[in-house]
Specification:
The complex is a heterotetramer, with two copies of chain A and two copies of chain B.
Chain A (H helix, E strand, L loop, with lengths): L1 E5 L1 H7 L3 E4 L7 H11 L11 E4 L2 E2 L11 E5 L8
Parallel strand pairs in A: 1-5
Antiparallel strand pairs in A: 1-2, 3-4, 3-5
Chain B lengths: L1 E4 L5 H7 L7 E8 L3 E2 L2 E10 L1 H18 L4 E7 L1 E4 L3 E9 L2 H18 L2 E7 L2 E5 L5
Parallel strand pairs in B: 1-5
Antiparallel strand pairs in B: 2-7, 3-4, 4-6, 4-8, 5-7, 8-9
Helix pairs in contact in B: 2-3
Classes of the chains: A alpha+beta, B alpha+beta.
């Protein structure tokens, strides 16, 4: 099982903040996102600016995932102020 | 001290907590909600965080700053949830024996926070709302 | 706000007084008495000011800073008399819509204050005291 | 009459913070200080690093004084912190 988290506009586009993905076979972050787009076509438009973290650390898109990973997709951050 | 909080940030009490007789220079950055942005009137803001990762990234900023400059403290507090105009969204305080290091570290910390810490801001206007998702500098 | 005070500087209440819905960035410099200087252990300090001239020079710093950067506020408070270790001797707060201006103005203001404002510091040690009269940077 | 003010170590050296100087004839800041040194020889050692203000504004040493001026002599300033 993969625990998938979505934030900010990405969560709005998917209509939910958390998804569970049943573990079938090894896949990369990129492949996982392509699978998500199939179920949630509105996510596709975000791909070019998207950031991804695996287990709370920024990750490359070609990283292979392991069963049990938490994968977060989110837009560029905008904390802070002024 | 690295914290994500939902209640208002009380700058005075954070600074009072940070007594340190070896530090002569305290530089703070206090970021507050402005009443205008992108040519529009802002009614309030909403900040959302990926909490555990945001704390980790803020801890990395602190650790890297304390390696790079001779600081005695680096504090980062970020507020999430609904914020009204004039309220503080972020407070960074850097303390060092000499002011030059405190100024540089504080500036570097807020610049870095804005590009690495997973927190997002939604601006609310009289006529709508928008997630701010481009690094605005 | 430009002030010379004899009572302790309360950073929180100064900042609370300065609400300004147009300013997103507040940078403060809070200079505190260190427990060591010149290789010696400091017991306390004494600051003396040429009061009226010190206020005029601090007003000049504020006016020049506000011409040079798009600030909404520049506040300088300096304390005089006897100060204990850990207490604030000077507080400078610069507010602007964007943080870069507030950082630069705050830094410039403290650097300038240390060379132009007629205030002198006497350091007291366990075994004596000395007027600090060289610009130490 | 000139009102003369001394600060910090300079005041300690002279043993007082304020002096009155009876106005006799026009003189410059420099000439006034030379006269002061006659009465307070310990001030002499400070001359090279001294600052002067006339009526609460920094002044050059060759400035001619006027009756009623307030003239302040003081060492390099050391306000602020850290």
């Amino acid at each position: 099982m993969l625990n998938i988290r979505l934030f900010a506009s990405l969560r709005d586009a998917a209509g939910r903040s958390q998804l569970e993905w049943e573990w079938r076979e090894p896949l990369t972050v990129e492949a996982l996102f392509e699978n998500l787009v199939r179920d949630h076509p509105r996510l596709k438009a975000y791909r070019s600016s998207l950031l991804v973290a695996v287990n709370e650390e920024y990750s490359a898109w070609d990283r292979p995932l392991s069963d049990g990973d938490e994968v977060a997709f989110f837009p560029p951050v905008s904390g802070g102020a002024a | 001290m690295i914290r994500i909080v939902e209640e208002p940030i009380d700058v005075g009490s954070v600074l009072a907590e940070l007594e340190d007789p070896g530090s002569g220079a305290w530089v703070t950055f206090d970021g507050r909600v402005r009443n205008h942005a992108r040519g529009k009137s802002v009614t309030h803001l909403f900040y959302e965080a990926y909490g555990p990762m945001a704390v980790r990234e803020m801890e990395k900023i602190r650790d890297r700053a304390m390696q790079r400059w001779p600081l005695t403290q680096l504090v980062i507090v970020h507020r999430v949830g609904r914020l009204e105009v004039g309220e503080s969204s972020v407070l960074i305080a850097a303390a060092s024996p000499h002011r030059s290091d405190a100024f540089e570290a504080c500036r570097w910390a807020i610049d870095t926070l804005k590009t690495t810490v997973p927190i997002w801001k939604k601006e609310h206007y009289a006529d709508g709302e928008v997630w701010v998702e481009e690094y605005a500098g």
